[in-house]
Design goal:
Layout (H helix, E strand, L loop, with lengths): L1 H36 L7 H16 L3 H32 L7 H30 L4 H17 L9 H17 L3 H11 L2 H30 L4 H43 L10 H11 L7 H6 L9
Helix pairs in contact: 1-3, 1-8, 3-8, 4-5, 6-9, 6-10, 8-9
Amino acid sequence: MNAFVAELGKQLVTRWTAALLLPGALFAAAVVLASVLGHRHAVDQRAVAAWWDGLAAGRAGGSGASLLIDAVAFLLGAAVAGLVAQSVGVLVAWTWSLTGSGPVLRRLADRRRRRWERADAAVLAAERALLADTGDTALRERTRRAIARRAAICLVEPARPTWVGDRLHATDVRVHRGYGIDLASGWPRLWLLLPDEARSELAAAQDRCGAAARLVGWGLLYAVLGAFWWPALVVGLVALLTARYRARLSVAVYADLAEAAVDLYGRDLALQLGLPCPDRLTREIGEQVTAIVRKDDVVPRARRAGSADRPSPRP
């Protein structure tokens, strides 16, 4: 047990150092440069060299205590910056679960829905044209591109104000349509049945989602620092654009893995709950799974239709 605790402590320190302290040290160094250079000498290397020479000369005649105090202050600043970035990342991840309620969020969700409806109409038009002439390769390619454009907006009709939120919601909807399972209620039970390899893949995807959310926090911190030192604004904008790309990619992978887990192990969940499932998992059996995990005596059809609006498993 002592060895286990010691190894766990080392892993936590390593992960904390990599995720927070090292990026925090870079940000603290940027804060120092911003205070020394400002906008006027933002990229003046001679000003940095002169400041460093003056600092070295002053510290040469100083005490070791002052050096220690400066080092501790620098590390504390780095740690505080890391905690702020992590807190912002948690807030960003929370926004992924927001629904289209409220005037602003509703307008954003409606805007996404209108885009999807236009893309869906283009898909229907392309499919009708293809049915009229199935041998036309140009029509077939046009249909493929139209489907890809619609899927790029959302795999189902959008109901969330953001792409990330809709991608997670789409997994819930697709699982409910295919198997009748309420994924929000069934996910904790399914997780207990997954083998270690599947859990590791899902956990790794979840960690990448968290890292993308934290990167938003770093981008915002650098953007604020850009008010005092313009190179930090450039770094912040690049970080925010990178975070947007990484968030979409990591959430898409996580959602695909969660849906795949239901495809591969949903039947095992039904069997573990005592339901007969000799072959593949069907919608009728999935609805019984939903009734059990939600502790419903009966599942009326109208209520089952509404369960697709439940939140999907969050990274």
